[in-house]
Amino acid sequence: MMRKIALVDINNFYVSCERVFRPDLWHKPVVVLSNNDGCAIARSNEAKALGIKMGEPYFKFKSLVEKFNIAVFSSNYTLYQDFSTRIMSFLKSQVPQMEIYSIDEAFLNLTDIPEAQVITFCQRLKSQVWHQLGIPISIGVSLTKTLAKVANNYSKKGEGVFILMDEKEINSFLERFPIADLWGIGRNHTKYLLSQGIDTALKLKRAPPKWIRQKMSVVGERIVSELNGHMAHEIEEASASKKMITVSRSFAKDVTSYEELEYAVCAFIERAVEKLRGEQRLASQVGVFIKTNRYGEGAYYSNYHLAELEAACNYTPTFITAAKRALSKIYKPYLSYKKAGVCLLELSNPESFQPSFFKSSSSRQEQLMQTLDTLNKRYGKRTVSYGAIKQAAHTITQRQFLSPHYTTEWKDLPKVK
DNA sequence: TCTGGGGTCCTAGGACCC
DNA sequence: TCTGGGGTCCTAGGACCC
Q1: Do A222 and A233 contact (CB within 8 A), yes or no?
Q2: From the CA of A68, how many Å to the C1' of B15?
Q3: How far does the CA of A147 sit from the C1' of C3, in Å?
Q4: Which pairs count as long-range contacts for A238-245, CB under 8 Å and 24+ apart, including other chains?
Q5: Which of A65, A268, A307, A360 is the most exposed place for a label (fewest CB within 10 A)?
Q6: What confidence score (pLDDT) does residue A298 get?
Q7: Which nucleotides on chain C have any atom < 7 A from a protein Cβ?
Q8: Rounded distance, CA A100 to CA A118, Å?
Q9: Beta carbon of A278 within 7 Å of strand B?
Q10: Quick check: helix, strand or coil at residue A116?
């Protein structure tokens, strides 16, 4: 049986959620804004048609909003997540295998459905989601994830369901598909490929694999392989546990005092630790970063600092202490900051890290080694590698003890117009 | 005046081990 | 003067995604 991969995509997701409660906004331009109402992060088709771009700052299209009476919403992520969960669980109940790819996308394995029935099946999914939740979705079906993405793209121009299985038909659609719109081809690869005369997905499909491998690494090689109908990305059913949790915000006004910054970082850490507990996980490292305004006058400053492995225990005050310590090392009193954030990194098995591991020995180095030993005795060598801990100990020693004033380098980037 | 937030994967090169 | 080599792990940075 031929493989059939469907990509389900929720149309203009955040806008569609808002419209559920405001049916009067159907067929009218709608925009959802980011944190602090900074820029557009979702647009209805009507708003797109007016030329409002993804990520465009609000102040730049404010005149359009007034002129065309565009409905504007601040974002409500709790609401969107709730809609997403409902839709995903419905879809999951309808197919044997599914991968939730993002808040508004899912890959479905439809291989078991006879080809002649696929279109009816997808139309039924679409209409059920619409009738149960009032949210419109689009479905594209093809041989691989990458091709399903292409099919999904065309589905939006038609009735919302598009099946692309026939080799000849695939080629004729790839021939019209701009390279820049292909899944996995971003700004940089687009620029390069265009310079090499490759402007459509079909030309990329026929490019020599070795050359692509050399120029675009395995990532590019996989795209070419998927365009040729060979799966390079399987459907990953189990939702993998996170490797990183980030909480960051831009400030409405620039922050100039350390106290304000510290207050923000503490709040971020609390939120991050909440997420961590939600995942039933522990972190082994805490990172803090601060940035000045990218668009402002003068040099752009962006600095990041990792706090000790000591922060591994799942105990909020410890995280806060570690974050404050990291912050104090990167803070420059004469700068005004636009953005700050915290990351919890290299999440570990909850049972691996216990606060007690850190209590019994005197020096940090010893603590780390002892942790390693305990973990390896308990879980075997692979749990936390010798090299990882040793390297971390080395790094920490170098940075924080041999060189107490260590911070990462200043970054002076060219001013962005 | 006002310019998002949260992720993943890959590679090069250094450090270290035996 | 000659100056191992294979393997693992880490970090930093790039590229991409929604």
Answers
A1: yes
A2: 61
A3: 53
A4: A239/A100, A241/A279, A241/A281, A241/A347, A242/A279, A242/A281, A242/A347, A243/A345, A243/A346, A243/A347, A244/A343, A244/A344, A244/A345, A244/A347, A245/A272, A245/A275, A245/A276, A245/A279, A245/A283, A245/A343, A245/A344, A245/A347
A5: A360
A6: 67
A7: 8-18
A8: 20
A9: no
A10: helix
Question: Strand, coil or helix: what is A224?
Answer: helix
Q: How far is the CA of A20 from the C1' of B15 (A)?
A: 57
A181 DSSP 8-state letter: G
Measuring from the CA of residue A296 to each C1' atom, give the nucleotide at the shortest distance.
B3
Are A168 and A249 spatial neighbours (Cβ–Cβ below 8 Å)? no
Q: Mean pLDDT over residues A46-63, rounded?
A: 95
Of A residues 372-401, those with CB within 7 angstroms of nucleic strand B are: 387, 390-391, 394
What is d(CA A208, CA A190) in angstroms, rounded to the nearest whole number? 17
Return the structure tokens found at A162: 């598009």
Q: Is the pLDDT of residue A375 over 70?
A: no
DSSP A401: I
Write the DSSP string, A16-57. Answer: HHHHHH-GGGTTS-EEEE-GGG-BEEEE-HHHHHTTPPTT-B
CA of A182 to C1' of C18 (A): 14
Token pair of A278 as six digits:
């939600």
Nearest nucleotide from residue A62 CA, by C1' atom: B2
> Average model confidence (pLDDT) for chain A?
82
DSSP code for A414: P
CA A372, C1' C3: Å apart? 35
Distance A382 CA to C6 C1' (A): 20
Neighbours of A79 (CB within 10 A): 14
Distance A158 CA to B3 C1' (A): 34
Q: Give the closest residue to A341 by CA, choosing from A412, A275, A399, A416.
A: A275
Q: Is the CB of A53 under 7 A from strand B?
A: no
> Which of residues A59 and A380 earns the better pLDDT score?
A59
- Tell me the whole-structure pTM to 2 decimals: 0.83
Length of chain A: 417
Establish whether the CB of A106 is closer than 7 Å to any nucleic acid atom in strand B.
no
A192: its two tokens: 């390069």
- Per CA to C1' distance, which residue is closest to B4? A34
Using alpha carbons, list the distances in angstroms from residue A125 to A52, A95, A108, A168.
Answer: 31, 10, 11, 27
On the 0-12 / 13-18 / 19+ scale of CB atoms within 10 A, A195 is exposed
